[in-house]
Amino acid sequence: MNISDKQKGILFILLAGAGFALMGLFVNLAGNVPTMQKAFFRNIVPVFIAGAGLKKLGEKIRINKGDFLFLILRASFGTAGLICNFYALDHLKLSDANMLNKLAPFFVIIFSFFILKERISIFQGIAVFGAFAGAMFIIKPTGNVAIFPAIIGALGGVGAGAAYTMVRALGKRGVNGKLIVFFFSAFSSLVCLPFLIVRFTPMSLYQTCMLILSGVAAAVGQLSITKAYFYAPAKEISIYDYNQIIISTVLGFVFLNQLPDMYSFLGYIIIFAMGIWMYFYNKNKKN
Question: Mind telling me which GO cellular component terms the entry cites (predicted)?
Fold first, then answer.
């Protein structure tokens, strides 16, 4: 049976969604471990996996001076977003934390305007406004201190959005995808290492296994999404990325006995709708 490039792209982006959803579950199941310690284990595994991929290429990897700045920015924004996301995973329902992180594509629109000088159309503006409105139903701003983790989760989306903008810039400059994954994972591990040394919390075998699995799942997610966009353009497959939220909701219910409330579900629907809006807008625009 022959599989088209588009079908391969869809399969890889579905696999990426499953990988990131499982990463969130394993982080949650690791229990009472400091956020920075969790982040270190999540990143150190992809360092070896992506590093092995680079070595397999058998080519000397060179980083141009201009590329290095974008790699540093991608790694810095990505690390900040990752730490915020992990904090949210520790304090929010699994699906809520992942949904807030899915604000990233909408922040890409904003950052692309300022950094890449790309215009924002009225349709994109409506989508961004709608997504933020949906996020409010998940965050539930009441002035209560309990909303703090939700705000941090939304900031994780900001960091991820800025990081993805840098990835777009690096892609335009022809930088190898495995190098981007390796550099980010290594940079993030080094940032987390001092916190790990100063405040290391002994872990059980179970907790260690959960964090190693979170790293494996993250590597699967990162490499799969890179592969997905190699086989098919974003306009054809980006909508399937939201399968992560469906998987996260199911995993949260089955393994963590979590079920989002009515307001969160409403927020999901609004953000989903804005994502579908952007999918068809981008598809029609490029056609």
Answer: membrane
- Terminus-to-terminus CA distance in the chain, angstroms? 28
Cα dihedral across residues 104, 107, 112, 114: positive or negative: negative
- Give the residue from 7, 173, 47, 157 showing the smallest Cα distance to 92: 157
CB 25 within 8 A of CB 94: yes
The whole-chain average pLDDT of the chain stands at 90
Considering only the C-alpha atoms of the chain, give the largest distance between any 2 of them, rounded to a whole number of Å. 57
DSSP-derived letter for residue 238 is G
Query: Is residue 211 within 8 Å of residue 35, measured between CB atoms?
Result: no
Rg (CA), the chain: 18
Hey, CA dihedral for 272, 274, 275, 279, is it positive or negative?
positive
Query: Where do we find the tokens 């399969």?
Result: 11
Who wins on pLDDT, 25 or 2? 25
| pLDDT tens track for 190-206 | 999 999 999 999 999 99
User: Cα separation of 97 and 86, whole Å?
Assistant: 9
- Nearest-angstrom CA–CA distance, 252 and 102: 17
* Helix ranges restricted to H, 30-59: 35-57
Hey, what are 255's tokens?
């393994």
The torsion angle over the Cα atoms of residues 172, 175, 180 and 186, rounded to 10 degrees, is -140
Q: How many residues comprise the chain?
A: 287
At 65, give phi and psi (nearest 5°): -60, -45
Instruction: Compute the distance between CA of residue 256 and CA of residue 252 in angstroms, rounded to an integer.
Output: 5
User: Mind listing the pLDDT tens digit for each residue in 97-137?
Assistant: 999 999 988 998 898 888 888 888 898 899 999 999 999 99
